[in-house]
Amino acid sequence: MGPLRWQVAAAVAVGLTLALEVLPSVLHWLRAGRRSRSRREVLFFPSQVTCTEALLQAPGVEASEPSINCPCSLPHGESSLSRLLRALLAARASLELCLFAFSSPQLGRAVQLLHQRGVRVRVITDCDYMALNGSQIGLLRKAGIQVRHDQDLGYMHHKFAIVDKKVLITGSLNWTTQAIQNNRENVLIMEDEEYVRLFLEEFEHIWEEFNPTKYTFFPQKKRGH
């Protein structure tokens, strides 16, 4: 091999070495850029009371625009509740809900609306709080939505939702009118594959654990002789 070929080979080897050294940094930069473009939204409560009829009854109408057909006297504008509703109503294929308390009529209507659109909705909740007056759980079940609950072995205290298996909604907020309108609460809405995967695994674990075939509310009768 002549001197020129040796020089070319050496240059290629150096170039490959540098490329391999730089590659991890480039991949990290690309991932960071992708994460920065992913959805990140923080909501704080109590929420301003606004009309949500445009979101719940007229898909495609912006909630920030006054609804001509809405007779209510509530202000028509953006609020933490309306932004939460938007995040939920963006679901097109699936919605997993894991909620300690669920009594908000607006959020209940949103979940039923998604079910009517053909979105697969599954709900996990706490057995004590689902029986309280005003709970939306009975209405969801009546609408044909799958619901599973614990057996009073400690509170099922999670408060999270997963939209289309790609957007996580979680925080301190119970889905109740009291919490939405009066409490200091927070909700984080984020599109992150790793966090969504972890919460989805937790949901599936609880979903299987709360399978009704495993309930022991009614002990098996002893067989007669």
Give a topology summary.
Elements: H1 3-37, E1 40-45, H2 53-57, H3 80-89, E2 94-99, H4 105-116, E3 120-125, H5 137-142, E4 146-149, E5 159-163, E6 167-171, H6 177-182, E7 185-190, H7 193-209
Parallel strand pairs: 2-3, 3-4
Antiparallel strand pairs: 1-7, 2-5, 5-6, 6-7
Outline of this structure?
One of its GO terms (molecular function) is phosphoric diester hydrolase activity. This protein is an alpha/beta fold and 225 residues long.
Give an overview in words.
This protein has 225 residues and is of the alpha/beta class. It has seven helices and seven strands, in the order αβααβαβαβββαβα. The longest helix has 35 residues. It is elongated. About 5% of the residues have low confidence. It is a single-pass membrane protein. InterPro entries: PLD-like_dom (IPR025202), PLD_domain (IPR051406), PLipase_D/transphosphatidylase (IPR001736). This is Mitochondrial cardiolipin hydrolase. Keywords: Differentiation, Endonuclease, Hydrolase, Lipid degradation, Lipid metabolism, Meiosis, Membrane, Metal-binding, Mitochondrion, Mitochondrion outer membrane, Nuclease, Spermatogenesis, Transmembrane, Transmembrane helix.
Question: Main attributes?
Answer:
single chain; alpha/beta; 7 strands
> Mean pLDDT, as a whole number?
86
Point out poorly predicted stretches.
58-68
Helix content: 40-55%
How far is the first residue's CA from the last residue's CA? 96 Å
What is the β-strand count? 7
- Give the strand line-up of the largest sheet: 1-7-6-5-2-3-4
CA-based gyration radius: 25 Å
The helix count comes to 7
Largest sheet: 7 strands, mixed
SSE order, one letter for each helix or strand: HEHHEHEHEEEHEH
